[in-house]
């Protein structure tokens, strides 16, 4: 795979299953270099193997499909162009011309159907009067100053949040079979009815089983002392939003809520936060169940061993009283089914990364990735997945996808370190790139990973592992580096590197590079301050100076203290910036201008410190991008990022496929 193959990476949404169980609809989106944006449409996926999947919409970017409970209407979000905001659209489920039913200046972010199929609740940002987004005539530069009194006032990818909180709205679904209005008689869209008026983000809303209320989980509301969030309920007919007594014994951070179809139970996903309400480190996300009329919540998943917080995961319902959730598990993502009154089924496991699932009409549809697909749809038949699509066929045809080799090596204390080798074609010896993931409470997976594939195609053997501190291996594994950044985690990644070098003679132990982003940028910077075996390094969007991070990052007010400790001595002992004087390795620092998770100054100060100490260094800054550049940044920036990375490695680790540039004569 090469950087120019990015447009072949089709991303597939969670499935919307028709209530009769005969078919599903998904959105399929991809990067597009021509528009420098993401484009895609909706696809119909029939379960009948004699029928083929087909594209059913032709919008610029159509996403988030959802059938009405009666099966008559399909709703989705449509973005009209690269600079447009997503709006809510409905179309007859059997086909027809889509109708736009919102015109929100800042767009629609999520939505859900009412049980009677007549209404939709959606979330949208509602800016304060005079703020950017309240009128097309007001620009961000012309806004008045902001007076801030709380820690949490910005969010990566959003910017300032307190002056444009996300609110919930109700909109009636129009009659789709009626005669259209003529152009002369056409009227503006009826305004949706605002349900919430909170000072903070309301999040996504879902209807109660009887349709009388909407449940949601708002962001923290003005409490600077803890991270606790709660379930709220607001009547559809109008009224104040009030917290729901979950009966939890200790503070929790709730992220998702659904009422069971029979109305008897509330399912919700939460992390316990310890006695302080801020102890988030390595807290696995747990699926809880509590009676709808109150009681003591019951944990349906093991908080020590399971983590139902896979990226993009939602609670989906199956039958009257069962829930479907996704579980991070040792480099995979599993699909679990859990019942309110008991029962636990592992439905999909093995070398797959499930990203979405839904059930209706007796059919369970699953979207997943693995070593050879970036995303495809399957139906679960008799406990086995039957593949319905092949959206990565062109990618496999036009590029050579390398299947990762799963490996486990022991650290010096005997601890098993699990990961993968992506080895390029040819006899070698191949230079090696040790790639470190972010988080740290995250995981590399078996799913097709564009980074590893691009580097392997350029002639590099790529090593990726999940050291202590990662998610997916139980709470103890994730908790091992609390107050001990740069200890067991560094030992683990180096042990994995040395184990692979010893096992595979085709890996060149004399030509090593190291790279990582976010926490991976931290551990890369830490490694090159303590070891000088690498020919080059790339530190991307790194957590590099915990002191300035505390006051500048959107999570700075709690992240560093909970992970590193509260004393100056503890923080300095784990700070890459405090050890930058030991670095000798040539280093490329990559950062994004609008990164609020690890702000730009982290990279700028680190680069300057390297230069002042005579270390060969470069700083690559991407305008307009945030912390998600490598995953969802502008397509041309993602391509340019790859090109700069490959040029850097060509200087210090040239290969036949990625040779060093020949200087001009």
From TrEMBL:
Domain (Peptidase S9 prolyl oligopeptidase catalytic): residue spans on this chain: 451-652
Gene3D superfamilies: alpha/beta hydrolase (3.40.50.1820), TolB, C-terminal domain (2.120.10.30)
Keyword annotations from UniProtKB, A to Z: Hydrolase, Protease, Serine protease
Any one of the GO BP annotations: proteolysis
Taxonomic lineage from the root: Bacteria, Bacillati, Actinomycetota, Actinomycetes, Micrococcales
Pfam families from the UniProt entry: PD40 (PF07676), Peptidase_S9 (PF00326)
Record-level Gene Ontology MF annotations: serine-type endopeptidase activity
Name of the protein in question: Prolyl oligopeptidase family serine peptidase
């Amino acid at each position: 795979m090469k950087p120019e193959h990015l447009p072949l990476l089709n991303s597939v949404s969670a499935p919307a299953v028709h209530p009769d169980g005969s078919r599903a609809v998904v959105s399929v989106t991809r990067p597009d270099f021509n528009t420098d944006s993401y484009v895609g449409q909706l696809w119909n996926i029939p379960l009948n193997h004699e029928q083929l999947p087909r594209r059913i919409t032709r919008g610029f970017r159509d996403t988030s499909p959802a059938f009405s409970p009666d099966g008559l209407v399909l709703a989705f979000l449509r973005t009209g162009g690269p600079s447009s905001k997503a709006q809510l659209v409905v179309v007859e489920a059997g086909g027809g011309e889509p109708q736009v039913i919102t015109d929100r200046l800042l767009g629609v972010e999520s939505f859900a159907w009412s049980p009677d199929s007549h209404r939709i609740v959606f979330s949208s940002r509602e800016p304060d009067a005079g703020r950017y987004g309240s009128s097309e005539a007001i620009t961000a530069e012309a806004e008045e100053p902001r007076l801030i009194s709380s820690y949490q006032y910005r969010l990566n990818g959003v910017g300032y949040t307190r002056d444009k909180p996300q609110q919930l709205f109700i909109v009636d679904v129009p009659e789709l079979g009626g005669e259209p209005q003529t152009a002369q008689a056409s009227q503006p869209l009826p305004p949706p009815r605002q349900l919430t008026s909170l000072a903070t983000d309301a999040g996504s809303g879902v209807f109660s089983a009887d349709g009388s209320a909407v449940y949601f989980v708002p962001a923290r509301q003005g409490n600077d002392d803890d991270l606790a969030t709660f379930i709220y309920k607001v009547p559809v007919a109008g009224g104040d939003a009030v917290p729901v007594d979950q009966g939890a014994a200790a503070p929790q951070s709730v992220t998702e809520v659904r009422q069971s179809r029979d109305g008897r139970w509330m399912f919700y996903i939460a992390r316990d936060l310890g006695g302080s309400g801020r102890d988030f480190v390595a807290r696995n996300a747990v699926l809880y169940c509590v009676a709808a009329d109150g009681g003591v919540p019951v944990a349906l998943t093991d908080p020590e061993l399971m983590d139902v917080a896979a990226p993009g995961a939602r609670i989906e319902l199956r039958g009257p009283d069962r829930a479907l959730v996704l579980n991070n598990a040792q480099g995979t993502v599993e699909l679990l089914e859990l019942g309110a009154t008991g029962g636990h089924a592992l439905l999909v496991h093995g070398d797959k990364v499930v990203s979405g699932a839904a059930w209706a009409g007796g059919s369970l549809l699953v979207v997943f990735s693995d070593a050879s697909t970036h995303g495809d749809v399957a139906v679960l038949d008799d406990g086995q997945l039957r593949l319905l699509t092949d959206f990565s066929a062109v990618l496999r045809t036009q590029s050579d996808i390398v299947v990762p080799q799963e490996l486990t090596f022991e650290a010096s204390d005997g601890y098993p370190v699990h990961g993968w080798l992506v080895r390029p074609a040819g006899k070698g010896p191949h230079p090696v790139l040790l790639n470190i993931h972010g988080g740290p409470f995250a995981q590399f997976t078996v799913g097709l990973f564009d980074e590893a594939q691009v580097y392997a195609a350029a002639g590099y053997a790529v090593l990726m592992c999940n050291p202590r501190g990662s998610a997916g291996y139980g709470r103890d594994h994730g908790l091992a580096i609390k107050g001990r950044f740069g200890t067991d985690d560094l030992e683990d990644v180096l042990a994995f590197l040395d184990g692979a070098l010893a096992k595979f003679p085709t890996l060149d132990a004399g030509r090593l590079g190291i790279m990582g982003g976010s926490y991976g940028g931290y551990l890369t910077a830490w490694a090159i301050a303590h070891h000088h075996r690498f020919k080059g390094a790339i530190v991307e969007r790194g957590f590099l100076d915990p002191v300035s991070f505390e006051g500048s990052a959107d999570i700075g007010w709690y992240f560093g203290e909970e992970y590193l400790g509260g004393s100056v001595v503890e923080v300095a002992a784990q700070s890459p910036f405090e050890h930058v004087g030991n670095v000798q390795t040539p280093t490329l620092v990559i950062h994004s201008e609008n990164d609020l998770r690890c702000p730009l100054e982290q990279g700028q100060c680190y680069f300057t410190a390297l230069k002042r100490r005579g270390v060969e260094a470069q700083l690559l800054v991407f305008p307009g991008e945030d912390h998600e550049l490598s995953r969802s940044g502008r397509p041309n920036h993602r391509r340019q990022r790859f090109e700069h990375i490959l040029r850097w490695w060509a200087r210090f680790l040239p290969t036949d496929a990625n040779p060093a540039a020949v200087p001009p004569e």
